Every structure is written in C-alpha cells, then in structure tokens.
Amino acid sequence: MSSESPAAADAADPLRQAAETMHAVRERCVWSQRITHRDLVPYLIEESHEVIDAVESGSRDDLREELGDLLWQVLFHSAIAAQDPDDPFDIDDVARTLTEKMVRRHPHVFAGEVAETPEQVLVHWNAAKAAEKRTRRSVLDGVPRGMPALALAQKLAGRAAGVGVAVESAAAPASEDELGEALLALVATARAQGWDAERALRERLRVLEDDVRAAEAAS
C-alpha cells in the first residue's frame, strides 16, 4: 500500500476515504490486527448507546461524531470479514447487500407499487421481509437475544400478538412520561425486595416464547 494518506488519496469520496482509513489501520496497527468480530461486540454496544444519548440529549455535533464512531464499527467488522479465508466480504459487499434489500423492501419507491400511508408502507415492507425469510420456521426466529430485556420484551410481545398469543396489559399510562414512572416504580419494588428486575423479565420472556412456539405448533 502507498504511504500516501487516505485523505490525500480520495478526498472527493468521504465514505471511500473512511473505508481506506480503516483498511490502513487494520494493516498497520498491531492492536487492530488482533481484533476479532467477537472482540468488537462490546464496542459496538457502547457506540450504539452513545448514538442514542446524542439523539436524546446531545448536540448536532455530538450526533455527527457518534454516528461516525458507529460507522467505524461497521467498517471495522467489514475489514475483519475481508480477511476471512473461507468466506470473505468487504464493505462494498455490505453496501451492495444493503442497497438490494432496501430496494426490495420499498417497491412503492422503486417498483411501481402504491403506498399512500405509513400503514401501506409497512404492508410492503413486511411482505418483502417475509419473502426474504422463507426458511424461518417461527416468528421468534431472527430476534436477537442479546437485546436488553425491556427492548426484547417489546419485540417479543409484538411477535406474540402476530400468532394470537396475548400479553396482559397493566393499567394504561396516559403518556410515555407516565409509562416511565410506572417502570421505575416496578424497578424500585424489585430493588426493595432484593429481586433482579432484568432477570425477572428475561425469565418471563422465556415463558412467553414457549407459549408462542406452542401456538405455532398447534396451528
């Protein structure tokens, strides 16, 4: 590789410049050379949460910076993947796959279908996604179990509803603020009782998953 900096090599294309910068780091930085996909997972989680913080309470400069840090994680994973001896792919393959998927899932933009409401857009999206995932046997397939328990609960409740498994609702808060108060009160109750709120929710979710799979088997 040339000793010329990536910035000088391709200043006209910032995304390509970022990819070339990552390539140089992967080749020349002894720490980066040793990093695996698994090693990067904690950093990916951390950077994702920093983006969320920037969205919720940061400045525009904060958001721009944190989005860049998250993009770096994608570039890093792609650089690692490019060196796989059995099934290599690089950032161009990642981008190509993404573009193909987004074109398929937006037929109202690229293929002459009509969607005049957000609900109609969702119909097209779900139909395209279902066609892509034909090999999946359960609505639970593809749900990442590493999600925080509360986010996982919201995802699984939606999947459960899709197969007719109802999750009993508590008293309905009138706003997200009231919902936050109710959730915090439940966590405070768990703390006072010496219970682990995260574990309690995850254990309940395992029961919900069993109920969903039973409903699918019976259908």
Automatic annotation (TrEMBL):
Coiled coil: which residue ranges? none
The record's listing under Pfam families reads: MazG (PF03819)
Q: Which GO terms describe its biological process?
A: dATP catabolic process; dGTP catabolic process; dTTP catabolic process; dUTP catabolic process; TTP catabolic process; UTP catabolic process
* Alphabetized GO MF terms: nucleoside triphosphate diphosphatase activity
InterPro entries hit by this protein: MazG-like_dom, NTP-PPase_MazG-like_N, NTP_PyrPHydrolase_MazG
According to the entry, every stretch annotated as the NTP pyrophosphohydrolase MazG-like domain falls at: 36-110
What is the recorded name of this protein? Nucleoside triphosphate pyrophosphohydrolase
Q: Which organism is it from?
A: Microbacterium maritypicum
What taxonomic lineage is listed for the species of origin?
Bacteria, Bacillati, Actinomycetota, Actinomycetes, Micrococcales
